[in-house]
Design a protein that fits this description.
The chain is α/β, with parallel strands linked by helices. The chain has 22 helices and 14 strands. The protein folds into 4 domains: about 200 residues, Vaccinia Virus protein VP39 (Rossmann fold, 3-Layer(aba) Sandwich); about 70 residues, no CATH class; about 80 residues, no CATH class; about 80 residues, no CATH class. A 7-stranded mixed beta sheet has the order 3-2-1-4-5-7-6. Helix 20 crosses helix 22. It starts with about 25 loop residues before the first helix and ends with a helix. The model has no long low-confidence stretch (mean pLDDT about 90). Bound molecules: S-adenosylmethionine (SAM). S-adenosylmethionine (SAM) binds next to strand 2.
Length: about 475
């Protein structure tokens, strides 16, 4: 197959990352929060899926039919193997965006996601992605984009240019070898007291942090020919050419404005009617480095009664131990406080870790306050939307096969997400927890033995893990059972 990599790194596979925003199950709650009607999503496509971890998780635990493509054969092989382990039957194409666009067998999709793609490909390929969306987004469908943003990425533009130019000029070696040469040269430039880095200390700090980063991540993040952090207005123009408009942020904490905007910022944004100018200004106020957004053909504003009914019908499930739910959420900007009595009433109902409709949680309470708490808990990843579609038993079987595979790879520590058939989402899980879980699923019951099973891979003394193993056995293990994950 002919592949035009268009300057994209092809000799180093990417990391095994999971991105929750690629889960179509998050769309309804988020769009409803923004006052918009949400479509039913039955088909989805992940463009440039990388190692395919997000796609494989979401295909395993929902009835959504997934397609996706990627340029690198290693990525497609890995994604296909994961998908086959679960038995999801997704359509995973080894195809460039150009080739994908030229195919005549690709259907329409209710959800099209592209995470970590737009900023890392050429302008020509960005145009192809827009044409793909224009042709293949079903009526009422939603597009998700996640990309490097301006102005927060601005200080890194010269650093990335220096690194990429150094790597390009290193005559020989693999991408990783040329990255090492570029990092060493960058360190020498810092040591030479470069005025740029002195006057942009933020860039110097980020460069220092890069030096210990995973080389596979660095290769795909900084060493392609293209690295173009995009202003919101540029993404809006690109997708506007495909007939799309901005729906809302896909990052749910962004909807809790008290956490991300000062009162003055909020007052200023409230005066800006134009959505493109408003979002561009928001990025300026928050110095956004990365944006995650939903786009639609038409913003269908839900009538209040329709919205209220849709909210009431949302099913949610508590995905963390009840005691782990905070009574307030805080950032350096501000905080969101929950009414302790109402929070407690809601948590009493959610404490069985089974799906409940918002209507059940609200009971006789003031509904707006309940809606606020439920959304905030979802934004804080304490609550997940519960899938309401199709065959839960089949999803459970697929999730168990997927999760067993993740546990088999826990010693390598490269795949840190479990599939949850109740929410239809992935649950990021630390390597230590996966190793404990692996021991428990193999019948190991004593805390000392669970700790010992994890210690060698973590290169830690077993004694130092006994208390963590006990807590995992007492708290996480029953939770994973309640969520039908093991
Ligand atoms: C930074 S990675 C992000 C991967 C994945 N979406 C994620 O976020 O984990 C970008 C991906 O786009 C793929 N890609 C780059 N150029 C492409 C092209 N022209 N056609 C298809 N895929 C491409 C790469 O192989 C890589 O997997």
């Amino acid at each position: 197959m002919s592949q035009d990599a268009a300057g994209y790194v092809t000799d180093t596979p990417y990391t095994y990352s999971y991105h929750a925003e690629l889960d179509p199950g998050r769309v309804p709650l988020t769009l409803l929060r923004a006052g918009l009607q949400a479509p039913a999503i039955r088909t989805a496509c992940d463009l440039g899926f990388g190692q395919g971890v997000s796609l494989a998780v979401h295909a395993a635990v929902s009835d959504v039919r997934w397609w996706g493509n990627d340029l690198l054969p290693e990525h497609v092989r890995h994604a296909a193997a994961l998908d086959a382990v679960a038995g999801s039957g997704s359509v995973l194409l080894h195809a460039s965006f150009e080739e994908l666009l030229a195919r005549d067998d690709v259907p329409m999709f209710d959800f099209i996601g592209m995470h970590g793609v737009l900023s890392w490909v050429s302008a020509e390929n960005r145009g192809r992605l827009a044409r793909f969306v224009e042709r293949h987004l079903a009526p009422g469908g939603v597009v998700y984009t996640g990309c490097n943003a301006m102005p927060g990425s601005a200080a890194m533009v010269p650093v990335r240019q220096l690194l990429a130019q150094t790597a390009l000029r290193a005559a020989t070696g693999s991408t990783v070898e040329r990255i090492e040469a570029a990092l060493a040269f960058g360190a020498a430039v810092i040591d030479a007291d470069a005025r740029y880095l002195r006057e942009a200390p933020q860039a110097a700090d980020r460069f220092r942090a890069l030096r210990s980063a995973d080389r596979r991540y660095l290769a795909h993040e900084y060493f392609n020919r293209d690295w173009q952090p995009l202003f919101f207005a540029e993404v809006a123009e690109l997708l506007g050419s495909a007939g799309l408009v901005f729906a809302c942020s896909a990052q749910r904490t962004e909807h809790l404005e008290a956490l991300t905007l000062t009162p003055d910022h909020r007052a200023m944004l409230a005066t800006i009617a134009d959505p493109v100018l408003r979002e561009t200004t928001r990025d300026f106020l928050t110095n956004a480095r990365f944006r995650r957004d939903y786009w639609v053909r038409e913003r269908v504003v839900a009538e209040p009664a329709v919205r209220a009914a849709a909210w009431r019908a949302q099913r949610v499930v508590l995905t963390v131990p009840r005691d782990a739910v905070p009574e307030r959420a805080s950032t350096a900007i501000g905080d969101v406080r929950f009414d302790p009595t109402l929070l407690s009433t809601i948590l009493d109902r959610l404490a069985d870790h089974r799906p409940h409709t918002v209507a059940e949680l609200a009971a006789s309470n003031a509904s707006d306050a309940v809606d606020d708490i439920v959304f905030s808990l979802a934004a804080l990843d304490c609550v997940g939307s519960a899938r309401s579609d199709g065959d839960l038993l089949a999803a459970e079987a697929r999730a168990h096969r997927f999760n067993a595979h993740v546990l088999q790879r826990a010693r390598q520590g490269e795949l840190n997400v479990l599939a949850c058939p109740v929410t239809g989402a992935g649950m990021p899980t630390s390597r230590q927890s996966l190793l404990f879980l692996d021991a428990l699923t193999h019948g190991v019951q004593e805390d000392e033995a669970i700790a010992a099973a994890a210690a060698a891979s973590l290169r830690l003394p077993a004694e130092s893990l006994v208390e963590a193993a006990r807590r995992f056995r007492m708290i996480q293990w029953p939770l994973l059972h309640a969520l039908c994950m093991v």
